[in-house]
Input
Amino acid sequence: MRGEQGAAGARVLQFTNCRILRGGKLLREDLWVRGGRILDPEKLFFEERRVADERRDCGGRILAPGFIDVQINGGFGVDFSQATEDVGSGVALVARRILSHGVTSFCPTLVTSPPEVYHKVVPQIPVKSGGPHGAGVLGHSVADLRAAEDAVWSGATFITHLFNAMLPFHHRDPGIVGLLTSDRLPAGRCIFYGMIADGTHTNPAALRIAHRAHPQGLVLVTDAIPALGLGNGRHTLGQQEVEVDGLTAYVAGERPDPLGPRSQPACQVAHDPPRACPLCSQGTKTLSGSIAPMDV
Output
């Protein structure tokens, strides 16, 4: 009760001249915030007789929750998979510059590397100790469905970008992909899975299949590489050299296989999927947020 009274006495901030995504459309509306929560302006005025303490003109820009990217391998020339003596400064640089792409939180990730890279890099970027059980992430695995189900019972909760570097779906044994509809998981356990929805890494039809099978678990990721934000040319990604051409990156000398985005804004990754994947545009309160009264 005391917390609610404190919030009621906090300053009210009104964002004006902004565009807000509602129902798949960008609408021109004002947004009212107090104590980190979005307000219903009608209740604020008629029930509390309050007006905004401060107004900020957004200049017609889109106002949206910050994107959370849980798979980013680097950016702006910083490669998280390089065994340097000061990994933290590189992470800090990416954290500052990636704000212009709409990303406010991210998880630094490493590509497959020699063991010595992990031993040198990982201890430098601890945020929260996962304890002896680890983070519980599946992916880059040849596990069959039974092994994947056993992993979930042991604490696994997330699948690194679905369909990539894992056994392909088969009707007799769907492999890790089968976790999306498995009936052998702990009661109430939600399996989350990352997908790169750029139309290249994952065919739009595969994206729709996954979303329709398990919409609550979909997490959009960019899988961005160190060339994010840089120009065309050759750059590094872990132990590989990559070539950037426009918004696409390839292993140097090999054109067929695309890698992560170079300078694609996080919002652009979700530009096309919303038409067939409502979760991407509507968001969820637990993962990507939404803009509605009482949202944090």
About this structure: The helical segments are 2-8, 41-46, 87-97, 115-121, 145-153, 204-213, 266-269, 278-282. The first helix runs from residue 2 to 8.
